[in-house]
Amino acid sequence: MKTVCGTPGYCAPEILHGSPYGPEVDMWSVGVITYILLCGFEPFFDPRGDQYMYSRILNCDYEFVSPWWDEVSLNAKDLVRKLIVLDPQKRLTVHQALEHPWVTGKAAKFAHMDSTQKKLQEFNARRKLKAAVKAVVASSRLGNHSHHEGCRNERHQDAAKEDSATPTAESDLILQGNVYKEKKPETGGEEAMTITPLAMVEKLDSFQNESPVAPVVILNGSGCKT
Q: Which region ranges are annotated with the description Disordered (predicted)?
């Protein structure tokens, strides 16, 4: 597989590199989860942000921080070391991890670790807070998107209403028989105008074309125009 996916803090280095990967990435994630269960925080967590955390993952930069790892047995640390390994071929397989002495219980430490329990509670609280913040941000973005869509639809509706309310030349005057009539869009009724019939309009046009207006002639000294 080559798809870049997974929760950032649990991704194996080959996923971040975009290289082909196999089931070994799952064993890396098992190592990260085991680390969290034993101490109460992530092995590659960096308060400066995800970019620094990715850098630590790519370099397999983690350690067993004191005092949270002081009470953890050596066998538990050995399991984590063999799971969180930079080279995928050197990580424990599923069967090898199940046969590890700490997993089988032959070398497990059964003492109650109070500090680990408190750290786990803090980890869960921080995880829930982070999820709540992401939910609020996503909800806010969806609300803003819906608001913009509503405003845009309202503008389109207003523009459509203005276009439909604008009168056209065809709706103002209509021709019935030989007489032009005016159509009133407010009431939907029609009112006849005192307009010359169409036949007479045509005769006047032909008359004007055949008989142009005579030019104005000025008689010298008379001051008259004909």
A: 144-173
